[in-house]
């Protein structure tokens, strides 16, 4: 073959290879185009806000990520990153061939792979879609993704995504997370010195971390500052100042996650997962902004009250829910003494026996079936023979009994067990079960006589929800902690709907029940023992309604105003018996301290009665209308038409008093004054 033939053959082969190469390139481009735009969705931190829209917490998966817009980043930092990582980023189409050739030449000379040539687009593709394994298959996939990114997105979008996903060490991904971790500030607040320090890290996050290798980080920072000066991004004066500026790193203590209201935040994650129909991990790393119902000041007051009353070393546990009864919004929540020791949420997950706090549900049913605050039943030791032939023998606290008829008003205030069991049997046990379920108790409840004394297991959340119906006049509510959710772009994807509330309790009887529940603090109802709220009544300056309850292993206090319902359970996780008097008192003391504090500036002063309810002063013991000769009297409320008509005849004037009154009033009987 002569030279002419050889040249022709070379031209044909070269031409064929060029055609094949161009066809290959076109095929790759067409293939990438048909695949469409790759998703830019990546894991991002989810932020929680309180009701005032202040950040209260950050949730993330294994990686700590924030997503921010490029105009929220320090411009000098952005330029430092471009000059360091990919100087020709805005000129190439995803691959810097000049840099690739230079890297190959350098690596061949050094016989090592000391230099890489990945562009920002390639690194972004790797960060978003791939692992960091060093294989040809991964390189090929990286190239395909890089082409698609450049094909469907503009340069600023790619750069913004890269700066939000690049790894800066210590679990921080993206400039915002890195800025928080290293300097405890927002990315747009970085100084030139700080921004150039952060730009130094991605080359080797472990080697250039200023927390672990400050000298290495400082040396590379100065190289970057020199480049910024040479490229006239910064002035010589700025270069000098940044080079000499002291670097104040955030302390490791600052970087320790300090979660505010952690039990509440866990409830937020669970609720968000249900709303969005995703798993909890997807909530934590989905970049959502979740606006909650938490009142930060109220939460702090609750935590202070717990610490003040129980101390920091007390081994008893606690569960608290504080709710707005008008809306169902949870304003404060505590699920235990120390989240770091146990994340088990006793406010929503635990189910414990509520004791006498269950009685108001029974007594509401009784009001629906003809009882009034003046209804009397005999309080004495009683054996109840049941249909199956067994005998049930309940007893009162410490064996105290009136040995006399007492009114429903006293039975509530004194927490008389005999009265409660008699009422439950009179109504038939299924009535209480149906009433409790209707009022939001989700637990399986046995239709047995002892249910009247709170022997089934329920959650604090459910009990607070049921009491909210008394506080709001019987309107249905849905307990919730989330008001609104937006995605990482700020689009609203969920908003709590304000609906017309369904009336599920009789408004009049709900109010009568509320009035009955104020009795635990009213010592005019004292009888064979003091009212159950006597120990805290002196602390209260507003007319709260409430009910306490105790079992061998549980202590409860649930009470409310028109604005807030708060339920507290205290006890031991292992069901250890509560033996000390002070331990039984914790729930009441915490409740009183907390409720008084959060109502200091409240406009709440009374529970206004609805139409169709009338107030009558009655003798607490007889249930009849009070006279001037009754030792005590109480303003009780009745559904109009059910109030007592007869006046008390148990407390009559002495003969001398009666004669004197007759003389003064024309010899009329003293009862004449009331007709």
UniProtKB/TrEMBL annotation:
Pfam families: Transgly, Transpeptidase
InterPro entries cross-referenced by the UniProt entry: Beta-lactam/transpept-like (IPR012338), Glyco_trans_51 (IPR001264), Glycosyltr_51/Transpeptidase (IPR050396), Lysozyme-like_dom_sf (IPR023346), PBP_transglycosylase (IPR036950), PCN-bd_Tpept (IPR001460)
PANTHER family, per database record: BINDING PROTEIN TRANSPEPTIDASE, PUTATIVE-RELATED, PENICILLIN-BINDING PROTEIN 1B
Entry GO MF terms: penicillin binding; peptidoglycan glycosyltransferase activity; serine-type D-Ala-D-Ala carboxypeptidase activity
Major location (coarse): membrane
GO cellular component, one term: plasma membrane
Family of this protein: In the N-terminal section; belongs to the glycosyltransferase 51 family.
Penicillin-binding protein transpeptidase domain residues: 319-561
Glycosyl transferase family domain residues: 59-228
Record-annotated membrane-spanning stretches: 9-31
Subcellular location: Cell membrane
Reaction it catalyzes: [GlcNAc-(1->4)-Mur2Ac(oyl-L-Ala-gamma-D-Glu-L-Lys-D-Ala-D-Ala)](n)-di-trans,octa-cis-undecaprenyl diphosphate + beta-D-GlcNAc-(1->4)-Mur2Ac(oyl-L-Ala-gamma-D-Glu-L-Lys-D-Ala-D-Ala)-di-trans,octa-cis-undecaprenyl diphosphate = [GlcNAc-(1->4)-Mur2Ac(oyl-L-Ala-gamma-D-Glu-L-Lys-D-Ala-D-Ala)](n+1)-di-trans,octa-cis-undecaprenyl diphosphate + di-trans,octa-cis-undecaprenyl diphosphate + H(+); Preferential cleavage: (Ac)2-L-Lys-D-Ala-|-D-Ala. Also transpeptidation of peptidyl-alanyl moieties that are N-acyl substituents of D-alanine
Record organism: Pontibacillus litoralis JSM 072002
A biological process from GO: cell wall organization
Superkingdom of the source species: Bacteria
Keywords: Carboxypeptidase, Cell membrane, Cell shape, Cell wall biogenesis/degradation, Glycosyltransferase, Hydrolase, Membrane, Multifunctional enzyme, Peptidoglycan synthesis, Protease, Transferase, Transmembrane, Transmembrane helix
SUPFAM superfamilies named in the record: beta-lactamase/transpeptidase-like (SSF56601), Lysozyme-like (SSF53955)
Name of the protein described by the UniProt record: Penicillin-binding protein 2D
